[in-house]
Structures are given as C-alpha cells and as structure tokens.
C-alpha cells in the first residue's frame, strides 16, 4: 500500500524538499562533506550522492576534495556553494546610509557600494535612484557568466511583505510607499525586490551566520534612532499575522511618565533607550548626533564623565526592563544587540544584568546569553541577502530554470 | 532518479505523516467528508481513501454516510473519530479545584470528577492522591472495550516538559516536585503523564477547538490568582528554549512603583491585574476571595458601586498596557481572555481598547480581535486532553500498536 498512499506528487515534493535542504545547509555552513550532510539529514550515502550530483549538474554547488587534508584514507567529498557565479543583490536603507552589495551564494560579500544618507527630507525617488544606480553597477561588474538569483532589501520601517510596500517609515516620514516595486523597476532586471524590516532581517542574519548560528530561539534588538526587533522562535522569524510582529521598540516600559515617542505614544522602549534619550541624558543633545555621537558618549563614560556615565546607566535600566520582559515572554537562549545598541550595550551591561537578576524568573535566567552582533554593521545587509536567496533555497531547480 | 532520491525511509515517513494529518483533522473538526479532507490536504481521492481505510481498519476512525442529508446524488463518505473506544485522561490542577476527565478522541468530555482544592498547604501527595483516585474511577467506568491512549495534566505553574516536574508552583509553594512521575505511578496504567503549564494548554485548546480555531497567531491570557499566558505563533505554541516561554504575567508593566508580586519582583502584570489587585482596589480585600469574589466585584461595578467601578478601570488600564505590548510584539489576529479574566475582561474592555487605540501601531491594530474563551472554564482541561492525544495524533499506528 505504501506506494499508492504516498502518490507521485508527494514523492516529487519530497525530492524537491531534500534538494532544498541540502542547498540550504551548504549555503549556511560553506564547505561541508557529503558524509556530514547525510548524517545531519538522516539520509543514506547514495541518496545524498544523488542529491549533490543533481545540484552540481545544475551549477548550484561544486564538489571537490578538501585541500590540505593530510589524513590517510579516502577523503570525504566536500560540497561548496557556487558563490562565483550565483549571486544575490542586497540593499539596505539604514537610518544614516544607503548600502548595496553583490553577495555570493554562501553569503560572502563580493562587491559593495555605500552612500551617506541625510537624516530627513529624502523621498522615495531619491532613495530608489541611488540604490538602482548602485545595483546596475554591481550587476555590470559581475560579468557575463554570473547570474543574479534574487534581490532583497532591508528598510528601517514597517513593511508589507506581500509587495514590499513601506507601510510606515518613521524616520523618513514615509507612509505607504511602493519601495519594492519602484526599486525593481529602477533595476530593470525583471526580478521582484523582496523587502523586509531591518531588525527582522538582522535576526535572520544572526541566526543563519552570526552570533545565533547554533540556537533556535533568539531575540535581536537593533538600535538606530529608534529600536526595532527581530525574534526567532523555533528557528523561524516571528512575523505575526500581518508580518508586523516584533515591534519591541514600542513596548511600553514607562507608560505613565515616559518620554514622547515618534509613534505618537509615550514611554515606548525606543523613546527611553534610543539615540535621543542617550544624548539628552548625557547633556549632549544638539551638540552630538548619530552613531558618532553615541560612540562619543560611550567613550566619555569610559573616561569618567559623570553625566555620560549616568546616561548609560539610565538607558541600561530601561533597556533592562525591555530585555526582562522579552526573556520572560520568549525564554530565548540568546539576546543579540545590534546597530547603535552594539556600541551602547557593553557600557550598559551591568545595569541590564542587574534587572535580569531582579526580575527574570529563574527558569528562564538559567540559560540565556547576551551578546553583541557577530556581523558588525553588516547584519541587516546580510539579512537582505538572505531574502535575495530565499526563492532559490526553497526551490533550487525550478527557480534556476525560471531565471535561465 | 526520483525513486532513489526519495528513498524507502522517507516514503514510509511520508505515509505516516499523512495518516497523522488525517487523524489530526478528524480529531479537530469532528465528522469531515473524504472529499473535504482531500481538498484541504492536496491529495487525490484514491490516496485519501487508502489513508482513511487504514485508519478505520486500525479502529481510529469510523466511516459512514451522514444522516439526514436530503441532497440528491452520491453522498460523500464522512470520517469520524472513534470517540467511544479511544480516550485520553485529562487532569487539571487549577488554583481552586482539582479536575479529572475522560475525553474521547475528537475532544468530547465523556465523564468527569471534580474536587474543591484548598488554596494553600496542599502537598504533592494530597494532589496526586485525589487525582489518581479520580483517574482510576474514570478508567473503571470506561468499560473493558475502551482504551486509554494517553494522559495529560495541566498545572498552574512552571513545568519542565521532559519529565513533568513542577519547577515552580507559586500558589502551592511547590519547587521541583515530580508531579508527572508521581501521578503516573498513582494511576498505575503503565503510561507516562504529560504535564503542561495551564496557560500554554489553554492557548492550545483555544487554537484547536475554541475561539481561535481559524487563526494561527493568537495570545491566550489566563487569570487566576496570577496571570499566565500561552502564545500560538504560526500555529505552534511558543514554548521557548527551555519550555518556559510566555510568562507574560511577569512582564514588568509598572517597574518602579509597582505592587509586589509573588515572584519576588514588583510591578509585574499579574501583580497589577490579578485577584488581589482587583479586590484591594475595590476595598474588598479580606472580605471577598477567589473567583466568587471577582464575580462579586464585577457585579457591584455593574450596579453602580463607585469603588468597584474604579477597581475594574484600574485593572483595565494595566491589562491594557500588557495587551498593547503583546500586540506590538506578536501582531496576533486574536487575544483571548480566560480564567478569572473571562469575568473581568467584559467590564474592563473599554479601558483595554482605549490603551490599544493610544499605543498600538496602526498596522497591528488593523486586524486584531479581542474575545473571551469559547470553552468556558474547561479551557485548560481541554488543553490537557490535547497533551493526552499528542502521541496518538503524531504517530497513529505505532502508538496504537504499543498500547494494544
């Protein structure tokens, strides 16, 4: 009865799923032996050989003997992503810069462009103009043998995933702007642009190739002017019913006396720990600004400036309240700080930890680690690259057939 | 190449997965036609017929023609769960009572026992003694042809899922008590007892057969003395890295002036909206107590008692802060109130909604519904029954073979 119950359609689905899983692992882990792949996927040797051979024939992976392995006996064949010819375009509209990169399958940045972005008064046309020019240059320089397999973009705002519309971009004042569609048109590659919220993408990047490679439950807090979040639950991004989940910057931590927030509310986490709060507490509002300003306050605190020290402590207290709530809610294995919080966290860690000790339930405190991003300021860009590769990884052969 | 790539092992896995999926749908939806099953699962007619025939031959489902359908043409065969012979035992250690029930496959309560539980000073032996006696009576009355397929228990505390240990039960003062193992020994059925946190199980029950049947992203808030939570994300319970997620009762909503909480912290959601807060604000602390006390305050507010009205408003304000944060974090389609919050929410709804209007981001406010539980006070018991059925639903034929 087995054969008839499975049915031809589901057999084919299973084969596609296995191909997808092999390519995903090679993309994530880099060079990996066939033996290790088989072990991790619970598949036998001949099945794995068939799968990797099929991916190699399609030009998605390369098989080879690892160089410099002096061990005796037959070496296990290693499978590597075809990073030289298959690439994704990744874009990042961050609070202070515009970024574009050509990223090879496997996640390596092969080429990149960057522009400083004014903090306000930048409309859709300006942003798309710069990014599309960057993108076309990157494609031109890739050479005729290379193939763009997808385009992803990170944006610091609320995104409707279905069509890449920016529903709300507080810093640029954008409301319902067709960013994804316009960038796709500007690039003229005949490919859609998948757009994601920067902190969601940061969480994905940390999970795939950053500080959270080995954990399936993590929280990523991304600071810039505001604070965004991405939450990985059981290995998947929590994106909520409409894709607008993880708005942890708008968690009310100080509901009745809080500082005003850009969202119109008061006492949101981002209002209490964002750039403005830190500079204001430090008495440097107006004088310092942006990422450099934040780094200056952190440096001042390190040299004994009392107001700067006090500012970091206050931000640490509120950040601690937010982190306590997130740990009690999600029982994560890891909390990662990125963006400007990468600079702030080390100086605020003792306050954050004191709150955790005081308020997190012991069962959830047992295992949680806190860390800064392992990908530096490229976290969100790396997440955009993951969006670019998503279709190829989900459906390797069909996606490639459509592209060629 | 298809056959070799799939491999015998994965074909068998696929068949088991399909059998599991059919049984799960029949368990959830009750009588369902083979045509509807095929449509929903994307399988053709003959594959579905094979699957349901195999489940029927094993005694897991029954197939039949629906009664009273007057329509012309060949009626579609309907598949029903074998609820008469296959049952689970479900237990509930709630804050004020001990419950036991025999629940048929498909979710119907076939028989039940209930005892009032003192609020404190009850040790593991007492609780297990009462529940095990109830359980043995329920098994005896089930008759010789019936088969117990699993045992689940709901407990109002933090549970280590792996072995059913109560890590922390604040109301009974339990720490690291081997509840699951002791109850299993007391029942003497040779079956393990799966134990879950009451609010986690409430969330599962609301998702499977309650107010959230049709949504995959929901939050369940369960009030008793404290407040617990269960969160379903993408159709699955968020249980965190150690199984201790969703402790939303210990979200800090009032971090610097808050009421003391049983957990040792201050200003936790449960300290601000729990039974004690409501009775205290109403000026009825010491006079009224428990669920009846809460209902009395709600009734007083309804008849114009100013202090009772004020108490409901204050609780509504803090409950609103908690709900705002949950909606901003999870972007759920539904928030369900159960336990004593089932009584409190209707009288506090306007305050909760005012907070949502003031503080939730528009994109997340667009779709969220708020409701009280559709399963009354049996929500947590129904969740325990789902634990009892979990193994059978995951692996129908193997589980049954082990049991018989």
UniProtKB/TrEMBL annotation, chains A, B:
Residues of the signal peptide:
none
Classification via InterPro entries: ATPase_NBD (IPR043129), ROK (IPR000600), WH-like_DNA-bd_sf (IPR036388), WH_DNA-bd_sf (IPR036390)
Q: Which family does it belong to?
A: Belongs to the ROK (NagC/XylR) family.
Indicate what this protein is called per its UniProt record. Putative NBD/HSP70 family sugar kinase
Native organism is: Nonomuraea jabiensis
Which keywords label this protein? Kinase, Transferase
Pfam families, alphabetized: ROK
Q: Which GO-annotated molecular functions does the record name?
A: kinase activity
User: Which superkingdom, per the lineage?
Assistant: Bacteria
């Amino acid at each position: 009865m087995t054969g008839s119950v499975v049915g031809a359609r589901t057999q084919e689905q299973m084969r596609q799923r296995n191909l997808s899983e092999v390519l995903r692992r090679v993309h994530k882990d880099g060079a990996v032996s066939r033996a290790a792949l088989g072990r991790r996927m619970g598949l036998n040797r001949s099945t794995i050989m068939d799968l990797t051979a099929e991916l190699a024939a399609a030009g998605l992976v390369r098989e080879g003997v690892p160089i410099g392995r002096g061990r005796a006996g037959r070496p296990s064949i290693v499978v590597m992503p075809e990073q030289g010819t298959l690439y994704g375009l990744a874009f990042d509209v961050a609070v202070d810069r515009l970024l574009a990169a050509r990223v090879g399958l496997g996640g390596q940045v092969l080429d990149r462009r960057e522009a400083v972005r004014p903090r306000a008064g930048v409309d859709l046309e300006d942003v798309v103009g710069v990014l599309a020019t960057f993108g076309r240059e990157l494609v031109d320089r890739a050479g005729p043998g290379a193939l763009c397999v997808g385009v992803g973009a990170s944006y610091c705002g609320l995104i409707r995933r279905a069509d890449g519309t920016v529903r709300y971009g507080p810093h640029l004042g954008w409301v319902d702007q067709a960013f994804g569609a316009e960038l796709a048109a500007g690039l003229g590659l005949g490919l859609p642009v998948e757009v994601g919220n920067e902190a969601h993408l940061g969480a994905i990047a940390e999970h795939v190739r950053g500080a959270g490679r080995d954990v399936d439950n993590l929280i990523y807090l991304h600071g810039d002017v505001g604070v965004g979040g991405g939450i990985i639950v059981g290995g998947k991004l929590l994106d909520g019913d409409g894709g607008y989940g993880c708005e942890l910057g708008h968690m009310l931590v100080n509901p009745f006396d809080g500082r005003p927030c850009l969202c119109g509310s008061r006492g949101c986490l981002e209002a209490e720990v964002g750039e403005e709060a830190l500079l204001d507490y430090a008495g440097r509002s107006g004088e310092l600004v942006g990422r450099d300003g934040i780094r200056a306050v952190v440096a001042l605190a390190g040299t004994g400036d009392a107001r700067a020290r006090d500012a970091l402590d206050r931000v640490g207290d509120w950040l601690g309240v937010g982190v306590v709530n997130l740990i009690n809610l999600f029982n994560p294995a890891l909390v990662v700080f990125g963006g400007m919080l990468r600079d702030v966290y080390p100086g605020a860690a003792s306050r954050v930890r004191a709150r955790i000790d005081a308020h997190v339930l012991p069962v959830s405190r047992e295992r949680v680690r806190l860390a800064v991003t392992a990908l530096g300021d490229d976290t969100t860009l790396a997440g955009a690259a993951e969006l670019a590769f998503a279709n190829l990884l989900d459906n390797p052969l069909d996606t490639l057939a459509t592209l060629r």
